[in-house]
Structure prediction request, 426 residues.
Amino acid sequence: MKLRTIIHESVLIGVSDRQSIEQSSRIRIINKFNLLCISYSIPYILFSLSFRFYQPAAVFFVGLLFYMLSLYCNKTGRHVTAKVLIIAATNFSVFYLSLFYGFDSGFHLYYFTSPLIVFSLFDYSEIKRTILGFLLYLASIATLVYLHQSGLSMAQEMPLALSRMLYVLNIFLALSFCLLLVTHFSEFNKKINQQLAASNEKLESKQDLLEAEIIERKSTELKLQTLLRDKETLLSETHHRVKNNLAVVSGMLDLQVLMSEQEDVKMILNDSRSRIKSMSLIHESLYKYDNVSQIEFGRYICSLAEEISNTHSSLPFKIRMSFAVEEVNLSVTKAIPCGLLVNEVLTNAFKHAFTGRAEGEISIALTEKDELCTLIIRDNGKGIDPGKQSPSSIGMALIEAFSKQLKAKYSFANEEGTKLTLTFNK
Prediction:
């Protein structure tokens, strides 16, 4: 029982869980091969010593050391060196013993097992080593045959009975050796195939699960896309209805303007209508350009300025508008107060900046850098009148309120007219 445990542990020399199935199986075969050769070498050593054949005994002993060294190389992880030692030991031993005992001793029969040895040691990825192993065995047996045919073999003279006994023994051992290699190699291939089949079953099972998960994800994605389309449609319709409702309110204010005879009332109503129109344009842009969450504010400013200009087309002076706006996308919560602020500034400019003049110019610039938006509205009018543009005026109060809603910083300056600078984080 103890011997069996030692053999089992010897077979597992150099085998670890980190290795692949094929690699660990081939290491086991190398260990079994070394143990088999060691077990065959010991009787031959005793046989050679009993007949005082010290040279072949020494050869068997060197081969024994090579096989033990091959086991040690497997233990230390030098598996290629272990394979080279096996090929060197088997080839040298068989070649020398065939020369020493003669062709009739049958030692050359071990060369018939060389293909099995090579295939057992090397896998299909080690094609160069496999070819070199075959060539080494072929060169050795070819040299051996040539020496025997040319009579150059220095065979030891032995009694005929001893020579026949060696031949029969070598036939038996070579056949048993070949049978053991075939058995181990077939078991190895069978084990590999079984393990590969098990791995394939696991992979197929995982593939089925993956395909089911992909189908489920696609189904979920389709549902989400449908829900998103429904949400966008609902929001777009909401913006459209808000725009229509604001248009109705704007129309009602128009009627009130027509029915009113007081100029102050008409001016207040027109200002209110202008602010409503500013909000209506935002909802119209959201509905028109199929973006229910953000508005391209540069384009919106141009539309708003044109609408305000048309509203004040009856004024006795001509206003030129110029734009230098970048593509800046703002959310609805930012766009509405910012649009109302722009409406307030432009309306005040049309009303108060160019009185007593034949023409004027208003420029609007919008830029964005690192999420920080800068809006500059400039006119070349008469500038701010501190007496009329007091902090308590409605226009300034609205600008202050919209700036707070935007969390923005603003400033007015007299620079050959009026200049408003507004900065806020988008």
